[in-house]
Structure prediction request, 310 residues.
Amino acid sequence: MVEVWKSAGVRRRRVFATFIILTFASLLMALNYRTFVLWGELYPAGATGLAMLLQRIAQRVIDAAGLSFTVPFSPISLALNAVPVWIGFRFIGRQFTLWSLYVIIITGILTDVLPVDMLTSFISESDLSRLATDPFLTSIFGGIVFGFSMSLCLRMNATTGGTDFIAIYLSEQKGREIWGLILAINAAILLAGGFVFGWAGSLYSIVYQFITLQVVHIMYRTYQHQTLLIVTNEPKRICEAIYRVSHHGATVIEGVGGYSRKSASIVYSVVAADDTVYIYSICKKIDPDAFINTMSTSRVIGRFYHRPRD
Prediction:
């Protein structure tokens, strides 16, 4: 009974931490949309970029008709995320999709209610003026903020919606990173924005999206793979440690030292990149003399374990 109570307490703390971090990430994204994205007339990735493009087109039509009405962002965002959310429920996981839906809803609402001049009290007037008038700086800082926010969501087992659902689904099916596919899908949005609103915003949006993907690539490494070659005298214990940390198996190759001519074992394994730090530490504790070589792996074909999202 005590163990059940402790387990429930751990789950509650985990849920609370997820709620706080995802709310913070949503606030950062909304602030980014209301400042850097707005100043540079940029288009974020996926459904968000398409929602902003449709919002700006609708706003132009309403302004041309002489109506004093501001088109809200959140309803358009929710409508465009309907199919990706269904894909999430159907193929990825219920809990993952519910948290992602929370991010989509909160980000949309905050984007509609946050004031445009919210950064005025945090940044000097001269710096604020330069940021608002320099689209290159705007695209770089905006890309960093959005990439950081997206990485927070992914680390907490959620996503920002849109093409992220599709990319994660394909990543789990193909066993490799598909983030480059997002950039290709967004090309259509950028072309449409360029034809309607001019090419400056679309071209700077390429910089914005590239910076975003680089930040995500650095901070979120679940679908990056690393090949480990570990020369050790404790192959059995190290194989057990690799499985305990990553749930991946290993192959032991018997070898002979080229200089010492002593027998040695080589443990070969492919693991998720975010597990390697823990494996290094454990291997060095088991065998301080172990020699570890790590290589990036672009693709894995075969049975490769991915942690369940729910």
